[in-house]
Design goal:
The chain has helices at about 10-20, 40, 55-65, 80-95, 115-130, 145-150, 150-155, 170-185, 200-215, 225-235, 240-250, 260-265, 275-280, and strands at about 1-5, 30, 45-50, 70, 100-105, 135-140, 155-160, 190-195, 220. By secondary structure, it is an alpha/beta fold.
Length: about 280
Amino acid sequence: MIVVTGATGGLGGTTVEHLLKRVPADRIGVSVRDTAKAQHFADRGVRVRQGTYEDPAALRDSFAGAEQVLLVSGNDPAANMVGLHRHAIEAAVAAGARRILYTSQQGAVPGNPYRPSDIHIATEALLDDSGVAWTALRNGAYGPLDQVLGPWRRTGVIAQPEDGPVPYTDRADIAEATAVMLAGDRSFDGPVTLTAPTALTFHDVAEIASGLTGRSVRRVVLDDEQWVADQITTGVPEQVARLMLTWYQAARAGSFAEAGPLLAELLGREPRTVADRLAAYTAT
């Protein structure tokens, strides 16, 4: 039995879809906040149980019989995420899981300016103390590119704070590779990095976008404080804007610069590149 948390979300749900191509549905379980939203999995034979990181008893029930549990990390900036992850790890251990996989983040090491890194570092330490085998999936940045680049298609400008090289990774590739790991016979112990094979800067992306669109896309570097002020004027709370700023600060510090080959190895093909993903945007 493989149990996946967060299965009504983008990463967890796509991972379950790929698992269904590899293992019988009755070997897959999902632990979700709202079981009605997972009815499409139940209809296909997946075991659906209610469970949240806030409710350890429900988690233990939703993890029952699991040999492996995939813990999709939470992202509520107002919550005690390390404490909630502790609940999930303890529930998986109590349920008898032999391995816990956790969606961590590339560059989850001390000194990374990106604040959520501290949550992943602390959670990996909890996993290491859990007494069961564990794998931390240090995933490359897999958010939508427009979310990172801003409205470049409309403005012809990538106007963001100073950045650094980042191997921007497709979420669907991460999900497929995660399913390969869960369904396969090969064990991965401790942290593993899953990224696209090449790290790019916004300047690199602007050049790629220019070539694809046939028009000039410029890279403009914004002052950090001006960028924060601009975010606030669009309705973003200052605390959230300053949290987002630490991602750019981490990128420029080289915290995300290292790209690895494991994602391609697991997929058995080259992962989607930034050029592939931008081409898909420009085709719509």
